[in-house]
Design goal:
alpha/beta, Rossmann fold, seven-stranded mixed β-sheet
Length: 192
């Protein structure tokens, strides 16, 4: 399996490191045509407004929608989750619309309000996952096809809908690769 990481902006190098630690082949994706060379994709955290603009400028929006529509796994973290969401603050956004969630940007406050916290969930196993929330979005609501995998303070922070995985935090900023492992498990689902 070959995983791509969208390398327009954000923490793409850290995702590549995590994927390689799990034995996956991981490459940077900088042009839409490079999507044809990978079996799954991570859209990293970063700054969602900048990411949105760069995705439009480089012509990624249509190709990313098509990529996900084939059933290939797509994993968005923090800003990546924001650009994948169907709704932003209750309003439909015209962007990727890959997962039936409504999100609020910077829901926990400014940079100084960023935090780390242990999260739990059956998909994560018995040990807590130490999550890094940096100007994190909050999932305000989710459609019936979205499976919550973990919560923090009552809000869903990790969710899956078919071939789409979304996290409001930055799993790539820890040495714990379990969540990247969940992403790689979606490759097996696609193969079936």
């Amino acid at each position: 399996m070959r995983a791509g990481v969208l390398a327009l902006q954000g923490a793409f190098r850290e995702h590549i490191r995590a994927l390689r630690a799990l034995g996956a082949e991981a490459v940077e994706i900088r042009l839409p045509a490079e999507l044809d060379e990978v079996d799954g994709l991570i859209i990293p955290g970063g700054e969602s407004t900048a990411m949105r603009k760069l995705m439009a400028d480089f012509g990624f929006i249509g190709p990313l929608r098509e990529f996900a529509a084939t059933g290939k796994p797509v994993f968005g973290t923090c800003a990546g989750l924001i650009v994948m969401a169907e709704r932003l603050g209750g309003r439909r956004q015209e962007l990727l619309n890959l997962i039936d969630i409504d999100v609020e940007r910077n829901a926990y406050g400014r940079q100084v309000d960023s935090r780390e916290a242990d999260i739990h969930g059956e998909a994560l196993g018995p040990e807590p996952f130490h999550a890094v929330f940096i100007r994190a979005p909050q999932i305000l609501g989710a459609g019936p096809g979205v499976e919550p995998l973990s919560r923090y303070r009552g809000s869903v922070v990790l969710a899956r809908q078919k071939n789409i995985l979304a996290a409001t935090f930055h799993p790539e900023l820890t040495d714990d690769t379990r969540i990247h492992g969940l992403f790689l498990q979606l490759f097996d689902r696609k193969a079936r």
